[in-house]
Amino acid sequence: MGLSLPLLGAAALCSLPAAAQARTLEARIAKVVTSVARLEQVRVRLVWPDGAAQGELELQAGRIEAPELGYRFQNVAWRCPLRRDGRGGWRCAGELRAPGGAPLTLALDLGVVSTDARLSRGASVVSLQRAAATPDLTRIDLTRVPLAWTQALAAQAWSEGRIKSGTLDGRLDIAAPARAPLRIAGELRLAGAGFDTPDGLIAGEKLAADLRVDSELGAVTRVRLGGRLRDGEMLFGNAYIALQGKPVELDVQAESAPGQGWRLPRIAWRDPGALSASGSAALRGDASIEALDLQLDSPDLAPLRERYLSGFLGLAGLAQLELSGGLDAQLSLRGGDLSQASARLREVRLRDAQGRFRFDGLDGTLAYSDAAPRESELSWRSGALYGLEFGATRLPFSSDHGEFRLQRAISFPMLGGRVGADNLRLRPPAGGKGLDLRFGLNLDKLDVGQLSKALDWPAFTGELSGRIPEAHYADERLELDGGLAMQLFGGTVEVSSLAMERPLGVAPTLSSDLALRNIDLESLTGVFGFGSITGRLYGRIDSLRLVDWQPTAFDAELHTEKTRGVRQRISQRAVQDLSSVGDSSFVGSLQDRLIGFFDDFGYARLGISCKLADEVCQMGGLDAAKPGPDGRPGFVIVRGAGVPHLDVVGYNHRVDWPTLLERMEAVSKGELKPVVQ
């Protein structure tokens, strides 16, 4: 029923008349007011049989209120055997009951020089002492007291908070002078504490702490809380803090006036070797941040991931990000949004455990302002993006009106060429809007051979160049205007309509359109181990969609175009491989047994199409072919020319995509054989 009940019971008993020798004494009191609480509709009844060593005391109160402590009870009843203590005082112990709660045991000693009370339930005990010489001072000792008993008191400071578990041990001194605010001070030991809010945005579990408390509960409530957090986990929005059994020093000063949120003129947090923080804050009535000024210093970023950053990193798909190096920072929030910030990085290393990116030797400063301009410069020694290594560069920034801007174009070496960025503008999340990033991108003569090796592709050769006038990242989606061009296999592959979703998150998605022009088929088939085909390849791959870098949809059509001076020949191995992959057959003008005498064949045209959806490829070719022996309609993949004349015809219009990939891999290893008609 709360820590105030011993005081309330003592106050009521003190209201008894001094003379209590009568056999039956009954009193009705409209109101009893103490410095801590107010009792209304009080009824006191004492029955003392003639010659008995003790009487029976019964106390009832229709209403008990301690507004500054937050406690309110109705229909409270206490019954106990009353006896003298032999020193001029009285002693009484019995059950204290109120509707809706389990009974407690209240033992009260009204001595000549002091009043002592003991409220208990099982192993949980609240002991109260008050000396007659200092009636305004009450001492309370707590032993394994359920933290839930303090719910009403805690609600005075934080109405949304709900205490779920935990116990308190310690001692509190309560001073209640007539003309000064109520003051509560002492030392407490917290064990197994848990709390949350109805919306689940703030929570704590398994908290253990040794705390010093000093508070004034008056027109303005002032609280100072210091000590050591020994263990536990806490959630504040997306910020998840896990102490992992490593103590943290804490010092907080707070004050609040009626109808206003809390002001925290001092916040200090010291986690040796990991993080030190100090500053001030102002909170709204719902405990959200109105203003915050904070200084941070971390000599080693490595422990921060598990202890402080896992909530933010998990949302960004970076739960296993490895960090090292040092950092100090300052930040200010106004109206809940970032106002000013700066960070100084000292030999910082970031490494994504999934191999998506790496930065080594991050050094320098980064400053942000929502008002007057601030300049800063950041650099890195080296890095990698999806296994693609790149070199050092420096990034000069300017920030004002809530935006970062790159002051000049930058470039750095990558894959034997250079990558450049310009017109970079970054706007951090604010005003309910998420991160917004825009920049231009230049790729100059990147070595496709190095790119293929890094991405574990076949051994392509060529160069990649291009200009993206503007790349735009917002709402976890990256869109790139313009296009890229790869000089590949003697021809060109143009990439357009490029976009990515969750580029660094879970299951990243990429979409684009590709156009192929004048590709040398002999070089291409040689790389893939697909027999040998000479000629020039053209085509398109529209609406390409990759999920987690695996194709899930596209509409592709590839064909050859006759080019002056270029022979069009297809080897027997290539014919066999085409037939094996696509459930195709080849039809010759000579008897089947003679085909094996020829190493290659002339062809007039070659073409194939595939529209992938739901893991099924809808296959097609140059044009329709005569039905096969089983009556299935066919499509021409290779239209032969010359002697011997050979056509390759497909009959399966729907091919399972995983099966097709398996066949292509088997073909490259020479493990599949064709059907010959």
What can you tell me about this protein's structure?
- This protein has 677 residues and is mainly beta.
- Among the domains are: 1-104, no CATH class; 507-676, no CATH class.
- It has a 44-stranded mixed β-sheet that branches.
- Strand 13 (221-236) and strand 14 form a beta hairpin.
- The radius of gyration is 40 Å and the shape is elongated.
- Mean pLDDT is 86; it is low at 1-21, 585-593 and 672-677.
- This is Dicarboxylate transport domain-containing protein.
Main features:
disordered N terminus, 10% helix, 44-stranded mixed beta sheet, 8 helices, single chain, elongated, 677 residues, mainly beta, 60% strand
Write the layout of secondary structure elements.
Layout: H1 5-14, E1 24-33, E2 38-47, E3 55-66, E4 71-84, E5 90-97, E6 104-110, E7 114-121, E8 124-131, E9 137-146, H2 151-157, E10 162-175, E11 182-196, E12 202-217, E13 221-236, E14 239-242, E15 248-256, E16 262-271, E17 275-283, E18 289-298, H3 304-315, E19 322-334, E20 337-351, E21 357-369, E22 374-380, E23 382-385, E24 388-390, E25 393-400, E26 403-406, E27 410-414, E28 417-427, E29 436-447, H4 448-454, E30 462-474, E31 477-488, E32 491-501, E33 509-520, H5 521-528, E34 536-547, E35 550-560, E36 569-571, H6 572-581, E37 584-588, H7 592-595, E38 600-613, E39 616-621, E40 624-625, E41 634-640, E42 646-650, E43 654-656, H8 657-668, E44 675-676
Parallel strand pairs: 37-44
Antiparallel strand pairs: 1-2, 2-3, 3-4, 4-5, 5-6, 6-7, 7-8, 8-9, 9-10, 10-11, 11-12, 12-13, 13-14, 13-15, 15-16, 16-17, 17-18, 18-19, 19-20, 20-21, 21-22, 21-23, 22-25, 23-24, 25-26, 26-28, 27-28, 28-29, 29-30, 30-31, 31-32, 32-33, 33-34, 34-35, 35-38, 36-38, 37-42, 38-39, 38-41, 39-43, ...
Signal peptide: 1-20
Organism: Lysobacter enzymogenes
Protein name: Dicarboxylate transport domain-containing protein
